[in-house]
Design goal:
The protein has 425 residues and is of the alpha+beta class. The chain contains 14 helices and eight strands. It has an eight-stranded antiparallel sheet. α9 packs antiparallel against α12. It is elongated, with a radius of gyration of 29 Å. It starts with a helix and ends in an 8-residue tail after the last helix.
């Protein structure tokens, strides 16, 4: 007993780390698992969406693609007077995906995602941009909104951000606890003893899985939380390196008639012949510019690393945000989402983030298993010790002494448990 008390006294910090790790897992474990699973799904959002909705997102027609301007004109003919965003097809089988309003009103005007065949211009279908459902047509949209704001709008984003920092604290506390305290223990860090009890195997699995994905989990939670509070992060980064607001369009009033969309597309393509236009953001009027995303080989961002804003009246390029123009701070901000989604490192990075998203479920299940088994073990040990003390004592007074001794023993057991299962077992 004195040795145990001395050992515990030498490790108050480790005990506190264990308490943080344990209670974050108990209170927020289910949340961590759900956020991780939805994040894992979103790594492959587009192929999963196409698999669920082939009638909307896959075209069987092959041939030259219609120009974006022609597609927008056809959409207007079909009852979508204002197109806000155009996602261009990048390969055979892809379709045009438009975000459009059904009327000219700016307020209380529902938006719809409209899919059009790039070869024939046929309307393949549409889906509401506001509907949340687990039906195949809306499943990925719902998963994304849950991952982003728990389906609660702006207030939900704050909840996600705070929970993300708590998950980061859980990951860091797990790393601290997993660090071996002796050279011999390093060899057991990733080992799982298949001959041990179920509880021991659960603990080994929890420790090994957490160790393997620890840095990726820290990266995912840190970037995810900063993406929620992007404006605050931008201001913080700006202290060290200039980060212009996104987007920044130095508007100059023009009385010129708006340039045709295809003319602007041709101008951008001439300026960046080695890159493909992936998306166009269409302004509501001449008070802001057209925004173009362009993607080239080796780009980290899903839509491309180059952004161009153009004046809708004059057709001149106002702002370019690319590797050749970004400041160090803007480069850091640009990398946040590619790091969070894994696209920064191609297919390998995406696979790694997919596994990282699934890992919290495994960690929560194994961690809760170990905790519950420990509680049961402590209770059973206390009851047995109490029974032995009562049987050994020949008088009520001595039995009372046995009860007090057992209470001290139970307290020692609980203190010992703060360091996790004994690695020697």
């Amino acid at each position: 007993m004195p040795g145990l008390i001395t050992k515990t006294a030498r490790e108050p910090r480790r005990s506190r780390w264990f308490s943080i790790h344990r209670w974050l897992g108990i209170v927020l474990g289910l949340w961590f698992a759900l956020v991780g699973l939805t994040g894992a799904i979103l790594v492959y959002e587009e192929p999963i969406d196409a698999w669920l909705n082939p009638d909307l997102l896959i075209s069987s027609n092959r041939g030259p693609h219609l120009a974006p301007g022609a597609i927008v004109a056809l959409a207007r003919e079909r009852g979508f007077p204002h197109v806000e965003r155009i996602r261009l097809p990048q390969a055979d089988g892809d379709v045009y995906r438009l975000l459009a309003r059904t009327t000219d009103r700016r307020i209380r005007n529902p938006r719809a995602e409209v899919m059009m065949d790039p070869v024939t211009g046929a309307l393949l279908g549409q889906r509401s941009a506001q509907t949340m459902s687990l039906a195949p047509r809306y499943a990925m949209q719902t998963v994304y909104e849950f991952h982003r704001n728990v389906l609660l709008g702006e207030s939900g984003s704050n909840i996600v951000g705070i929970a993300g920092f708590l998950l980061l604290a859980s990951a860091i506390s797990g790393i601290v606890l997993a660090l071996p305290r002796s050279r011999a223990a390093w060899g057991r860090l990733l080992a799982i003893n298949l001959r041990a009890s179920a509880t021991r195997m659960a603990f080994d699995t929890h420790r090994s899985a957490g160790t393997l994905i620890a840095l990726l989990l820290v990266l995912a939670t840190l970037t995810g939380s900063t993406l929620v509070y992007l404006n605050y992060v931008r201001e913080l980064v700006s202290v060290f390196s200039k980060v212009a607001s996104f987007p920044t369009v130095p508007f100059r009033l023009s009385t010129d008639q708006p340039q045709p969309l295809d003319t602007l597309v041709a101008t951008v393509q001439r300026a960046h012949p080695q890159r493909a236009i992936t998306e166009i953001r269409v302004p509501a009027g001449q008070m802001s510019g057209y925004q173009f995303y362009l993607r080239g080989d080796g780009d980290e961002y899903r839509l491309g690393d180059t952004l161009v804003w153009m004046h809708p009246g004059t057709g001149e390029i106002l702002v370019e945000r690319s590797d050749r123009t970004r400041t160090a701070g803007e480069t850091l901000m640009h990398w946040l989402f590619p790091l969070h989604s894994g696209t920064a490192f191609g297919s390998v990075g995406m696979a790694a983030m997919f596994v990282t998203g699934i890992a919290p479920l495994l960690l929560v299940v194994t961690g809760l298993w170990v905790w519950l088994r420990k509680r049961r073990g402590e209770r059973v040990a206390a009851e047995r010790a109490l029974a032995r003390a009562a049987a050994h004592c020949g008088s009520p007074a001595l039995a009372g002494e046995g009860v007090r001794a057992e209470s001290a023993g139970a307290t020692a057991l609980r203190t010992r448990s703060t360091s996790g299962p004994d690695p020697a077992h």
